[in-house]
Amino acid sequence: MNMTLTRRWSRRVPLTALGVGLAALTLAAGGATAADAGHGTTASHTGGGPVVTTKDGTVRGEAVPGGYTFRGLPYAAAPSGDLRWRAPRPPAAWKGVRDATDYGPNCLQPAPTPTVGPQSEDCLYLNVSTPKQPRRHAAVRPVLVLIHGGGLSLGAGRDYDPAKLAAEGTVVVTFNYRLGALGFLAHPALASRPGGPAGNYGLMDQQAALRWIRHNIGRFGGNPHNVTIAGESAGGLSVLNHLTSPGSRGLFQRAIVQSGAFALNQQSLATAKAAGTAIANKAGCADQSATCLRALPAAALVNAYPRAAIPGVVDGAVLKESVGTALAAGRFARVPILNGSNHDEERLFLATGAVLHNGTYAAAPKDVTAENYRQTIASVLGVSGARARAIVRQYPLDSYASPRLALSALLGDANFACTALQVDKWTSKRVPTFAYEFNDDAAPARYQRLDPPVATHASELPYLVDLPDARFQDPLNRGQRTLASHMRAAWAHFAASGNPSTSAVHWPSFHRSTQVLSLQPPKPRVEQDFATRHHCSFWAMH
Question: What phi, psi does 120 have (nearest 5°)?
Fold first, then answer.
């Protein structure tokens, strides 16, 4: 499979369419208390909400349908001033009871963004959702950590409302991490030593959040030794990064990758630093000094940076090598993996005026016609005329309703479906691997209406979590609600046991063949033709 990367900065495209105390949290509906796992004491409450004492201080959350939520918990100090572009530091402790009913500010990101709420450099906060759990049934729950998507430049933990997942018996954590220029700028002046690592501060934040979870989640009823990280799009790519990052080892025990295998080759540190030097010039730091960069207004940095921080950088510290290289060689965490993609991932990007290929964004061609179909393929994929003709033979126009739909199908296969299948083949050699394809082509749109509708990038999200800030809020029909129930149960069972099979749906493990579960209403079923339908033998040859 051709994974050659070229870094192409394009005009703006939408990206959000693009997660050991054994004492359990004991919460009663009428008045909640929580046992302090670290000290064996009990925190009381005075405001009607559940109260938990963390390592940093006491917090009061609130009851929500089916459980409890704690929002805006600081897991690191504000990464501003001299802490800008440094590894995250521990948060300051506090006295008294901290209100935890509102989200913390989102990390800074370029406008417009679908994520609502204030933005600030002081943004390293997380949110914990727990099932309702009477004292007499206190138990340690599996922990599910959801990492939001958005091209590593947009989004926030508040984008996902995981109450329904928590109701399945899991403790669910969402969080913010530094984005764009503030999270992923690689620049020579920011290296700890000449030629040393720079960039990947957002991934360092994610690791810091996982360390906070290890130290504190027992106080919320979660098991710090049974943590599953999950993410969609750039969140899924983040999960792959943690699977291969030495600094993430031991911080999680299972991994879920949703549409995240689109960028298996990260750019080199030299390439990233060269881009960072150009960004410093654009932002107003001609002297290329760290002092100047740290003194710049954050808005200047955000606006000077590209609209996406993918595919990421091999900085030599957080990431020692590209994700694909590490997975192929078996250099990744030995944990069970659930990995999948959606039927036609690229349709969402084309509908919003973009193409995603080889982990980079570019403007989509305005018109795809029978006359320019081959030339468009050559241009978008950066291939020769002979290669474009071979692709046309694989994806003839008479098999599709329009040239644009043909282009979408081939890009989705090359960038998502077959890369996901390749990841399955690599990981299944060493760890239990479970593969899926989300196939509800009537899935309600959340970010962009499609005609004809299809299961595209992010279509599976509303079957797992609510998306309160999404543009559209069409309800699921009866069959879709049944599928959503099966999916949430599978995600929760995987988090608990490392196997997504439930009493209702058997999910076979992947054995380097065709064991892919089709997520379709009302009930998932095994599909045997995934590789054939997506032309994966063709893409693997080049």
Answer: -165, 155
Identify whether 493 is a catalytic site residue.
no
Residue 85, phi-psi category: left (phi > 0), alpha (psi -120 to 50), beta (remainder): left
Neighbours of 459 (CB within 10 A): 30
Cα separation of 290 and 466, whole Å?
A: 41
Q: pLDDT by residue (tens digit) across 441-474? A: 999 999 899 999 999 999 999 999 999 988 999 9
Confirm whether 437 is a catalytic residue: no
**425 phi and psi, to 5 degrees?**
-65, -40
Domain 337-540: homologous superfamily in CATH: Alpha/Beta hydrolase fold, catalytic domain (3.40.50.1820)
Is 74:64 a contact under the CB 8 Å cutoff?
Answer: no
Candidates 213, 175, 188, 182; CA nearest to 200 is: 182
- Of the candidates 242, 457, 493, 534, the residue annotated as catalytic is 457
Annotated catalytic residue: which of 121, 168, 232, 345?
345
Domain map (residue ranges) of the chain: 72-232+267-310, 337-540
Superfamily for 72-232+267-310?
Alpha/Beta hydrolase fold, catalytic domain (3.40.50.1820)
0.90 surpassed by pTM: yes
